[in-house]
Write a structure and sequence with these properties.
Blueprint lengths: L3 H60 L11 E26 L9 E24 L7 E11 L5
Antiparallel strand pairs: 1-2, 2-3
Length: 156
């Protein structure tokens, strides 16, 4: 059987590394959070000033394209028509907040937040937009379907 001193000598590097890891882990996490916070404030505005407008421009450009002849800026709106409407009930978590006022002079008031699930009516509307290619040779017509969902007012 090994003595305690032999065990300490043999396992000291492992124990030292484990203790160092668990002591240094909060400092590493805090440093990572601080660094990522700085990077967020540097690169997030740059994202909105560079990448976001480019993505929007390319997306808008391809929305004007005819699916048959593949030419850009050929989409012409013909008409839009309402297709269907449906009422949906969903359970949505709602948070209500309030204040419990104390009856004692030196006791502070307490703020409470209560979250509960409430059934809410939603209205979902489907519509179709009809488009035509401006090119007289192509003349292709297509339909783009879309849906909008919104919370119904209590009077509906």
């Amino acid at each position: 059987m090994k003595t305690l001193s032999e065990l300490i000598v043999n396992y000291f590097p492992i124990i030292f590394l484990l203790v160092l890891f668990f002591v240094a882990l909060p400092f590493l996490a805090e440093g990572f959070a601080f660094t990522s916070g700085i990077l967020f404030f540097i690169f997030y505005p740059l994202y909105f000033l560079t990448i976001k407008p480019i993505v929007w421009a390319v997306k808008s450009l391809f929305e004007t394209r005819c699916p048959k002849c593949k030419k850009f800026f050929q989409r012409e709106f013909v008409r839009g028509e309402f297709v269907d409407e449906q009422e949906i009930v969903r359970d949505i978590p709602r948070t209500e907040s309030g204040v419990l006022y104390s009856n004692h002079l030196l006791e502070p008031d307490q703020r409470i937040d209560m979250t509960r699930t409430v059934p809410v009516k939603f209205i979902q509307r489907w519509s179709e937009d009809h488009y035509r290619c401006k090119d007289s040779v192509c003349g292709h017509e297509w339909v783009k379907a879309s849906s909008v969902e919104y919370e119904a007012s209590p009077t509906e």
